[in-house]
Automatic annotation (TrEMBL):
Family membership noted in the UniProt record: Belongs to the LDH/MDH superfamily. MDH type 1 family.
Record organism: Monoraphidium neglectum
Presence of the UniProt keyword Plastid in the record: no
Major enzyme class: oxidoreductase
Stated name of the protein: Malate dehydrogenase
Length: 341
């Protein structure tokens, strides 16, 4: 038992490279009682860079907070339930992670979540980001709620309306795409997944997810059909989980892991350490695509540098051309949602 626990802690420590010696950092998870929110909150409680952890949800969060608060790590943890408690949850936050919203069911695309129940996720994200703009305007936001391709533009427009938008601080979480690409590639090559790195660019839905296996570490001599299969599996990774869960939601545990890695990179950046991850941000690396996922360097003010996609194979160039119309349409839909409100 004990040695299994030690191995778990060591594995988490490998992924989460945070130094415990950073500034005191307050982190909030909005949607903390949900399928992602609960394991993510636990992982944030285990992050030594976090000194205060606010767990907010519209329901059922008090028990989650009481449970997690007993874990013997530094972060002082409190639960906040319902809109009246949101201001207190957010005040003083350095980082706000938002997994609040409805997940997909089999047969739905992420974009269908925009249409479902009168754009419920779009409204949830807009409302929560408004509160962030009022109560912790300098915080870095990690947006997980789908459709990310639209919810990040929604967050940006919402903060613009409040006059507190800083493009460096609004980041869509696409880390799960990178996590999946690494896992599937390592499995195909039969190499240690810890030695693998793969950038994933574009967006976070279907063909807008573009893994760049031509830039993978370690390199490969895979056939075109293998690259095609790996690309499709990465693009359809979310659907694979949605189908396996058969109506009981989408990825929660792998997402919590991915979100915890990404949040840790943001905290390392805030604490002046070098951190580079893929993220979906306001970007000019691809002309006419105002939000785009690519490698970003994180620093004390959020995104410091957005890296261009680099050299692509013909297959990847075609994938990039193909994804742009869908991504642009999703961005416009998000912008419209806020501007017409
Ligand atoms: P879930 O239904 O299990 O949990 C959602 C939680 O949000 C619930 O606890 C609910 O009470 C809460 N919530 C609803 N409205 C809220 C509000 N206004 N304020 C605060 N909390 C609110 O769903 P889940 O499986 O955790 O997924 C959440 C979202 O994350 C979905 O939109 C899903 O599509 C998305 N997701 C994104 C990624 C990604 O890679 N970015 C991966 C997986 C899931
Ligand atoms: C994922 O990639 O797992 C998430 O975006 C959830 C989904 O709907 O697929």
């Amino acid at each position: 038992m004990f040695s299994t626990g030690s191995k778990l802690v060591a594995a988490l420590a490998r992924g989460m490279a945070t130094s415990a010696r950073g500034k005191e950092r307050k982190v909030a998870v909005l949607g903390a009682a949900g399928g992602i929110g609960q394991p993510l909150s636990l992982l944030m409680k285990m992050n030594p860079a976090v000194s205060q952890l606010s767990l907010y949800d519209v329901a059922n969060v008090k028990g989650v907070a009481a449970d997690i608060s007993h874990v013997n790590t530094k972060a002082v943890t409190a639960g906040y339930e319902g809109p009246d408690a949101l201001a207190d949850a957010l005040k003083g936050c350095d980082l706000v992670i938002i997994p609040a919203g409805v997940p997909r069911k089999p047969g739905m695309t992420r974009d269908d979540l925009f249409k479902a129940s009168r754009a419920i996720n779009a409204g949830i994200v807009k409302g929560l980001v408004e509160a962030c703009g009022k109560y912790c305007p300098g915080a870095i936001l990690n947006i997980i709620s789908n459709p990310v391709n639209s919810t990040v533009p929604i967050a940006a427009e919402t903060l613009k309306k409040l006059g507190v938008y800083d493009a460096r601080k609004v980041l869509g979480v696409t880390t799960l795409d990178v996590v999946r690409a690494k896992t599937f590639y390592a499995d195909k090559l039969g190499v240690d997944v810890a030695s693998v790195d793969i950038p994933v660019v574009g967006g976070h839905a279907g063909i807008t997810i573009l893994p760049l296996f031509s830039q993978a570490t370690p390199g490969h001599s895979l056939k075109a059909e293998d690259i095609n299969a790996l690309t499709k599996r990465t693009q359809d990774g979310g659907t694979e989980v949605v189908l396996a869960k058969a109506g009981k939601g989408s990825a929660t545990l792998s997402m919590a892991y991915a979100a915890a890695l990404f949040a840790d990179a943001c905290l390392r950046g805030l604490n002046g350490q070098v951190a580079t991850e893929c993220a979906y941000v306001e970007s000019s690396v691809e002309p006419d695509v105002p939000f785009f996922a690519s490698r970003v360097k994180l620093s004390t003010e959020g995104v410091e540098t957005i890296h261009p996609v680099g050299s692509l194979s013909k297959y990847e160039k075609d994938g990039l051309d193909a994804l742009k119309p869908e991504l642009i349409a999703s961005i416009e839909k998000g912008v419209q949602f806020v501007q017409s409100a």
